[in-house]
What we know:
Helix content is about 30%, strand content about 35%. By secondary structure, it is an alpha+beta fold. It has a single domain (about 1-130), classed as Nuclear Transport Factor 2, Chain: A, CATH 3.10.450.
Amino acid sequence: MASQENKTAVRRLYEDVMNRGMADLLDDLAVPDYVEHNPVPGQPAGIEGLKARLAAIRGGLAPKYTLHHVIADGDAVAVRWTMTGKHLGPLMGIPATNRAVDISGIDIHRLRDGKLAEHWHVIETLEMLRQLGAIPGPQG
């Protein structure tokens, strides 16, 4: 049953916090000593870092996440997602471009007592930077 509860907590992160902007839920969804294994530059530690990270993503991209797979094994939950958004605010030092973004990624979350405790991810960072015009696309 813990696997189902863990999957529900992770779904709430994407659906309620990221898609609907219900950031106040993070205090209930994550542990205070939350660990981000792939932090963005300057991201603080702990739950405050998680809050800052997610606020920057929401403020910069106005994202809409679609979850394609949510797989639980013990205290770990893996998610394959796609995200569409529009670059409406600064993101990672890139001023708003008003360009559309469409990327995919895989996240692995470790939960402790039903709360988010650690996070790892692999996302299409280069593709996102290309879509934002921060790097050139392929030639030819």
